[in-house]
Design goal:
Chain A has helices at 2-35, 37-57, 62-84, 86-94, 97-103, 108-135, 142-169, 176-203, 209-238. With 239 residues, chain A is mainly α. In chain A, helix 7 runs antiparallel to helix 8 and helix 7 runs parallel beside helix 9. The model of chain A has no long low-confidence stretch (mean pLDDT 90). Chain B is of the alpha/beta class and 211 residues long. The chains are: A mainly alpha (239), B alpha/beta (211).
Chain lengths: 239, 211
């Protein structure tokens, strides 16, 4: 009986430790990101500007804009996520924070997940929330804008999680930035396909549920698998 | 029974690429003792310290902490080691106080702000505690690192060139913290070109050299 109780206690301790580690990394990274707001602003401006360039470069026909709009918004969200990825681990790697994090008694997988969550809160979430405003330039209907936002809300965390794996794997590599793009962009492709697919489905008048369900399934898979891949890659980078 | 607090290594070998840095390094440091690693540049001092901290895997040999063999990132070692390497692990955007509170928060969910204040006073930085680390000098950053060592209370200290960039007062701070650590039964391994400011009897020497 007491052995069982002890085991329950140990489980509770482990869970508390995981939550504490996740919360610690999340709060710390959000705080640091808010201190360097300029950098965040640059990424969001990049997103706004690139999305706004397409209507200028193509013919202003409503049909054309409405048909390319979802793809443009999704591709640009992908690029904006890619642009901010080097910040995720590289500065912590350069100033020694990452080795201290890896040496802490807290579970590393929970710590890197907290960092990834902070990355999504400061890049993916604003991108998803701005999509309806930017989508207006593409003459998209309101229900299309709704499905676009929903698909971005489900898809951008996957981008952050997959990107974290790539960012951790390219730590310390020469030309890490361009290598990161080559590594991560192919992995982003399925997210792009289902994300833009959900929006196209609504435009065509069918339900977006299958696409959104697949995105949600992908998100769950990424949440389960990515933290362990990231922590393994961080440990290799520190060796 | 008191915890044994003992770090030992047998037959440690380090390779970087094709170069062998050192072979067959062995030592034991016990409670209240400091091991000072010396050797020319490139003899593998930093690599040895990173192995002992559990960051790097040795090419051969074994490391024992409290009579248990430990592997890189071993949970048993992670909770016990405080590593001060070449890199300061400080965020330029945060103040000295916030940096320390942040590191304490990683160990303990509710850090006491008074502890942080006291630790900064200990390293004579209390007047700079509200400044972003960005504007602090190299030596002041090293002092924050010393305050962190003191705050996180680990039995095993691993210090890579702890005297770098420290002035006379800073060296004094290190002497005080180190002797308090060793008096309390702590263990320390340090790489240094200069003699460490500790009591001579508790110091052991390890010389790495070309083999």
């Amino acid at each position: 009986m007491s052995a069982v109780l002890q085991r329950v206690d140990a489980n509770d301790d482990a869970r508390a430790s995981v939550l504490a580690a996740f919360g610690w990394a999340l709060r710390r990274d959000v705080r640091i990101a808010l201190r360097s707001r300029g950098e965040l602003g640059v990424q969001l401006l990049f997103y706004v500007i690139v999305v706004s360039l397409f209507p200028l470069a193509t013919s202003p026909s409503r049909d054309l804009l409405a048909s390319i709009g979802p793809g443009v918004l999704w591709t640009t969200a992908l690029l904006a996520s890619l642009l901010s990825l080097p910040r995720l681990f590289a500065s912590d790697f350069a100033d020694g924070t990452l080795e201290q994090i890896a040496l802490s008694p807290r579970p590393l997988a929970a710590l890197v997940t907290g960092k990834t969550a902070a990355h999504w809160l400061t890049t993916g979430l604003p991108v998803a929330l701005m999509a309806p405003l930017l989508g207006a330039q593409y003459a998209l209907e309101s229900e299309v804008l709704g499905s676009l936002t929903l698909s971005l809300l489900l898809g951008t965390p996957i981008l952050s999680l997959l990107g974290a794996v790539g960012a951790a794997l390219t730590l310390g590599a020469r030309g890490g930035g361009s290598l990161l793009a080559l590594l991560v962009l192919p992995l982003y492709a399925p997210v792009l396909i289902f994300g833009a697919g959900a929006v196209d489905a609504v435009r065509a008048g069918v339900a977006a549920t299958p696409h959104l369900s697949l995105l949600a399934a992908g998100l769950l898979l990424a949440i389960v698998a990515a933290p362990f891949a990231v922590s393994a890659a961080v440990r290799i980078a520190l060796d | 029974m008191e915890a044994p607090s003992e770090l030992a290594a047998r037959g440690l070998t380090a390779r970087r690429g094709h170069a062998t840095l050192f072979t067959d390094v062995a030592f034991t440091v016990g409670r209240g003792e400091a091991l000072v690693v010396t050797g020319p540049n490139g003899s593998g001092k930093t690599t040895l310290l990173r192995m002992l901290a559990g960051l790097t895997a040795p090419a051969a040999g074994e490391i024992w902490w409290n009579r248990r063999s430990v592997r890189p990132f071993d949970a048993a070692l992670r909770g016990d080691v405080a590593f001060n390497g070449h890199l300061p692990a400080l965020k330029d955007e945060l103040t000295a106080e916030e940096n320390l509170a942040c590191w304490m928060g990683l160990d303990d969910s509710r850090p006491d702000p008074q502890d942080v204040e006291r630790a900064l006073a200990d390293v004579a930085l209390e007047r700079r505690r509200r400044l972003p680390v960005r504007v602090l000098s190299q030596g002041q950053r090293r002092r924050i690192g010393l305050a962190r060592l003191h705050l996180i209370r680990r039995p095993l200290w691993i210090l890579d060139e702890p005297l770098t960039a420290l002035d006379a007062e800073g060296t004094d701070v290190l002497r005080r913290l180190l002797s308090r650590h060793l008096d309390g039964g702590g263990v320390c391994v340090a790489a240094s070109h200069q003699p460490l400011p500790t009591a001579g009897e508790r110091e052991r020497a390890l010389v790495l050299g070309p083999t």
